Amino acid sequence: MIFKNLIRKKRDGLGLTREELEFFARGLTDASIPAEQVAAFAMAVFYRSMEPAETGALTAAMAASGLRLRWDELRDRGPVIDKHSTGGVGDKVSFLLAPIAAACGCFVPMISGRGLGHTGGTLDKLDAVPGYRSLPAVEDFRRVVSSVGCAIIGQTDELAPADRRLYAIRDVTATVESVPLITASILSKKIAAGLDALVMDIKTGSGAFMETLADARALARSIIGVAATTGLRTHALVTDMSQTLGWTVGNALEIAEAVEFLNGGARESRLEELVLSLVAEMLVMGRLAGDHAQARMLAEAAVRSGEAAQRFERMIAELGGPRDLLTHSARYLPRAPIIEPIFPVREGYVSDVDARAVGNVLVGLGGGRRVAGEVLDLAVGLSEVAPIGAHVGRERPLAMLHARSAEQVRQAADALRAATALSDRAVSPPPIIHEILVAA
């Protein structure tokens, strides 16, 4: 086959066959299709989309491009189940959910990615933990999942290598927001991970790739439908990303917030609600709880008892990180030299936030990726971010800025003020969970 002809077909709105999509996956894997052609194909799909059968064929082809894990030895001990988010600003849910679910009896082999556009990446955040190996050998991944109950890693060369290359190219070519490509990317990794079930966190709002509720529902239905054809049971929560999730935006800062949560410290209410709801969905799907109320009680007990914190610390240590991260996180996590408050231009209540612009504040500081392979500044970002409904002014800043230079402070302050709308009247924040979708 000549790949240029496949690009032309998709550009003209024609469907591709399973054989053609398998050819594409092979070309991604062995790099016989150059990056510029992959980028052109991704843009053609972005504009012309794919039929469900095409998306399913691409998903299967990318999942089959590498090793597919099996967890037969764990089946009698508990369900193998995972969560995946479509990405957002300040989303540190995985660091909380994985150990909580593991403490409740799940096995969570989580294969995550790096940042896409304005959204932070789970692996980028884990890079802030010295020594942590996010790309271990498959045998080590299996060992940690079996012994600890959870492990968060990236796509190794063996697991869905076709998606790994396409993911990086989509990030820098403005082709992230494509329902078929998002569907194929997420599910190819999860199928390769050998899951029993999957819970999706589909973000909607100004900081999400699917900004409207209708688009988020369309993506959720696409993922649920394609997953069903592969035998992977999948539920989806459509959740709010109209503002920062939690109090922090930035790689080391988000790890620190997760550590505080697990250690029994302060919790941002929206983050807490989302984490517990997602864990509850996992426990019900894995038949470890009879209903969501019981599942929430189990999840909350795992945090209160310290068991979830122990699982997180063991995971970090088993994958090369420090053994005392939860007790001495300040010793290990990088810290920016400048920490300054960003005050609003006037007093008022935060009424609206351009969360995408907030994510781009981090990119401007060097904490997010502008080109593939860019080395990130893991210390910079925002903390104490004021949520929608908060009263801000001379006594309460919009956020604390963690930066490297005075010029960064000036630019980030201007951008954050521009991203935040204020009201003279009190404002109620939007709900964190819009709806839960399951297979028909």
Count of helix runs: 17
Low-confidence stretches: none
Order of helices and strands: HHHHEHEHHEHHEHEHHHHHEEHEEEHEE
What integer value in Å does the Rg equal?
21 Å
The biggest beta sheet reads: 4 strands, mixed
* Average predicted local confidence, pLDDT: 94
Report the sheet-strand fraction: 5-15%
Under the CATH scheme, the architecture of the largest domain is 3-Layer(aba) Sandwich
Cα shape: globular
**Tally of distinct domains:** 3
- Give the CATH level 1 class of the largest domain: Alpha Beta
Question: What is the topology, as strand order, of the major beta sheet?
Answer: 1-4-5-12
Quick one: how many beta strands? 12
Termini Cα gap:
38 Å
Determine the CATH topology of the largest domain: Pyrimidine Nucleoside Phosphorylase, Chain A, domain 2
**Helix-strand makeup class:** alpha/beta
- At the fourth CATH level, what is the homologous superfamily of the largest domain? Nucleoside phosphorylase/phosphoribosyltransferase catalytic domain
Helix content: 40-55%
How is this fold's topology laid out?
Layout: H1 3-11, H2 18-30, H3 35-48, H4 52-63, E1 81-85, H5 93-103, E2 108-111, H6 122-126, H7 138-148, E3 150-153, H8 161-171, H9 179-192, E4 197-204, H10 213-230, E5 233-240, H11 251-262, H12 269-285, H13 292-304, H14 307-318, H15 329-332, E6 338-342, E7 348-353, H16 355-365, E8 381-383, E9 391-392, E10 399-403, H17 406-419, E11 420-423, E12 433-437
Parallel strand pairs: 1-4, 2-3, 4-5
Antiparallel strand pairs: 5-12, 6-10, 7-9, 7-11, 8-10
